[in-house]
Every structure is written in C-alpha cells, then in structure tokens.
Amino acid sequence: MANMSVQLVAVERLLWSGEATSVVAQTTEGEIGILPGHEPVLGQLIEGGVVRIKTTENDTVTAAVHGGFLSVTGDGVSVLAEDAELSQEIDVAKAREDAKSEDEQARTQAAARLRAAGQTD
After folding, report:
1. C-beta of residue 38 within 8 angstroms of C-beta of residue 70
2. How far apart, in whole angstroms, are the C-alpha atoms of residue 67 and residue 55?
3. Mean pLDDT per segment of 10 residues, for the chain of length 121 residues?
4. Which of 60, 69, 56 is nearest to 25 (CA)?
C-alpha cells in the first residue's frame, strides 16, 4: 500500500510526524479524507475539530484541533493547527468541566477534546 508523509503541527510544537496511509480532518467545507496520491488541496480546519491519522504501523493518531489549515501537496500532508492536543494528552475530567462552561469557545474546544479522547460529549 502507498504511504504519505504527514506532519501534525500546532503553533507551539510538532505533535506528530511520520508516514501514514490516511488522514481524516474536519474542515469548513466538511470532513475530508486524504489518501496517498490525493490532489493538492488547502482546507481551513474548523474550531473544535478532530484529526485522525492512520499510521503505516496501523496505529491511529487522534488529536483535538482548534483552527488552522490542512495542506496537501505532492510531498505529503501538513496539518497546521492554531492549537491541538493529542488524545493521550487530554485531561478528560478537565474537558468535561470545560464542556459546562458559559463560554461557547471553551465548550466547543472541550467537546473536541472529549471526542478525540474517545469520550461522549
């Protein structure tokens, strides 16, 4: 099976980089799935979205992503997020607390963190 180079980057750090067989992300135009050989595309990531990367080792890297862009070129895929958290880094109890916030943005981000961590909203 063909592979592609993928980078998941937030403003403050590189979260994951490696070879993958697919990427699924939520953009302002809807959910998009990327496979090796995909045509070049640039998409704006939604606030409070989830990105899933299927690695060549058949693992899934999942992250809550808050804004940014998805760029697909002949060289690979770059997910450039304003803010992002890998699923294993998410404090589920804090996310559940944040989901009750009066701040809509905090609730949106909390819902994405819970989805990325495999929890229900």
Report:
1. no
2. 23
3. 93 96 97 96 96 97 96 95 95 94 93 91 48
4. 69
